[in-house]
What does this fold into?
Amino acid sequence: MINKKALGGKKTLMSKKSIKLLLIFLLALSMFLAGCGGKTTKETGGKKEPATSGGSAKDTLVYGRGGDSTSLDPITTTEGEAFKVTENIFETLLEYGEQDTTLHPGLAKEWKVSDDGLTYTFKLQEGVKFHDGTDFNADAVVFNFDRWMNGNEDKFPYYTMFGGYKADEGHVIKEVKAVDPYTVEFVLKRPQAPFLKNLAMSPFGIASPTAVKKFGDDFRKNPVGTGPFKFVEWKQNDTITLEKNPDYWQKGLPKLNKVVFRVIPENTARLNALANGEIDVMDGLNNSDEATVKGNDKLQVIERPSMNVGYLGLTTTRKPFDNKLVRQAINHAVNKKDIIKAFYGGKALAAKNPMPPSIEGYNDSIKDYDYDLEKAKALLKEAGYEKGFEIDLWAMPVARPYMPEAQKVAEVIQADLAKINVKAKIQSVDWATYLQKATKGEFDMFMLGWTGDNGDPDNFLYTLLDKDSIGSNNYSQYSNDELHDVLIAAQTETEQAKRNELYKKAQEIIHDDAPWVPLVHSTPLLAAAKDVADYLPHPTGSEALTKVYFK
Amino acid sequence: MFTYTVRRILSLIPVLFGMTLVVFAIIHAIPGNPAQVILGQRATAEAIATLTRELGLDRPWYIQYFDYIGQLFQGDLGTSLRTRGPINVEIWPYLAATFELTLVAMIIAVIVGVNAGIISAWFSKSWFDYVAMVLALVGVSMPIFWLGLMEQWAFSIELGWLPTTGRENVRDPISAITNLYLIDTLLQGRFDQFWVVVQHLILPSLALATIPMAIIARMTRATMLEVMRSDYVRTARAKGLRMFWVVYKHSLKNAIIPVLTVIGLQTGLLLGGAILTETIFGWPGIGRYLYDAIAYRDYPVIQSGILLIAAIFVLINLIVDLLYVFVDPRIKYNK
It folds into this structure.
């Protein structure tokens, strides 16, 4: 009050001054912003003049993704984010097709399998050099396999694809030997049908023995392979920079000069960065953003071929899901079509089997449980649950390509189940705990999924539903001896046609027992600037950017 | 003064010691096994058991705790379970990124906040006062998530002025020396890159500054109002001193102490990492480092990271306490 009185007489004067002050302040602020503005358009110019950065032609591709790699030594990890990078630095003996999992020559130009399926002989590419200048040859291959088989699951987790480690009973490789500098021979203890497909997996990229010895444990931060790009720099949780390998053995490749993998965790922010020209390709486009990208004439949508399954697991050891009829009833009660329309932008296939149709051995003759509430109720009645029951429905706390919006999908399923008097309470917990609880079979009903590793049916059916996999990936704790016999027979059968028949049989058994409600095979989406050409996403989730270029 | 400083620093030790105990207890109370997370969805039960043993996580908690304290005394913050790298080395770029962002955000927050508070008090109940205080209220309650995305939409997508995310133009990367890019670019004489860094800092620091700015503005206004009612201000006016000097020199000096405290607290908070801002703007700061560590059950990183942040927080408060002396000579830390 005193204050006011004191000022009273000069009030008008003061207001004038204040307005002046304010104007100056605003002017200063706008000058500051304008100053920045002027600079930006010149400097980055991503929007207006995209070809300015880095000299004449645009040859640096920036790939925006949600998370960082934790290691760049591919054998030390199971993370997709690691393989997206290492696939460009390392090469495998065999390579998958550009957009499928058929087998093609890689570092091995040809291969032979003995009639008993026990000896594999590989002829290697000659004149290939590692990025450190040392030679790629048979000794390097032997060195790598020796390194891996003498490890353990903590150090080299994916090596279990070969049945275990050197001392283990299940390990299928008896020995790996260099016959001559460019011939390698693998002798197996017993036939392993997916052996060749395994060799093409990203984790089995051949590393420079010299560099492995030199860097030791730090090799994961200093990767040296034979691939189209060389490692340059890693700024953790920010960027990984690769540059062209000028001595790459495939002449004329790669077409890009530099590749930068950049972490932008938030999907919308990543899309903003793409629209602003700061990145050229973005991984993990939300289905709901597809229309935005299509509406922008500077951008394009790229579809990754599907090799996954999202499912609703029914823990077969817990009541009431120990009863097959109840599991079948639930299968009849979930409306997959609506889920796909609402949460996958229609870009997914309703699943009827635990493996996607892109994989050999898929049983298309199986008729899915149709969405039929009357049938579901009848089955529940037959099982003695006429009045329904209450259960917990666990929804994943994280987004995965096969399940971008788990919580919302869970709500739809909850509503579906309510129609047959099954009251589901939606639950969730952080991802680490979620997996732990699922492994132990502590959930009644849960959402999960799987993305294939090597494009082999074994990697879905045996890995996810065989009784051997209880305690690891068989989260529904499903155990069926008949299925087990079929799957084991298929593992050692080397004739593909016979194998496929066995897997078709396996899918029939699983369909009837209904340990899951298979929900979807989704199509993960990427977005890219219009001028990015020949970007071919691979179903495994990681691809070498060898042939990508800017139009 | 000197002895006071020493005493305060010494008193840090029990505080930090207590912190280690609390953090340790909390992370061991939450469920979820790091071995499971490290080995991923594909792990077998035996492998998990083996790794748990190798990591020493099967030992009693007090043994693990004393091991950890022993390490700390040797200046070793431990090894990250996720990247298998030494935390001493790995944490620095994250801290630097957060430090740079916090510094710029706090400079903006202090300049705008203090001035807005002063002017609001000076012309209290004027339109400026009302607008500023409504904005301050909006600032405190604005969801950073929304604000950040709106900033990107307006200043990057629509106007094309500023980059949306990140710290640098990745097509022209900065070679890190101190990891404080404002300094690194200057050290290398790359003024063009310095500008790029500044541009990258604007949007995230504005988003980060909103809350402290609003709090500082309200605090300044409140204390200034009180001071400006005091007798000596009236005397100064009566002697014919210009209002501007009365406000900015004589009143502010007496009003600034509680504001300094708030500034210190806010700086400390921001240095702990702002997960939302860092996530939206793809900023590789300490907040995301810790967030990832928690999701991954990377115990050593969680422990050491929180400990470090706590230490920084306490240190900043010490610095603020020491600053009081310069602002107000009546305050003395004797003995």
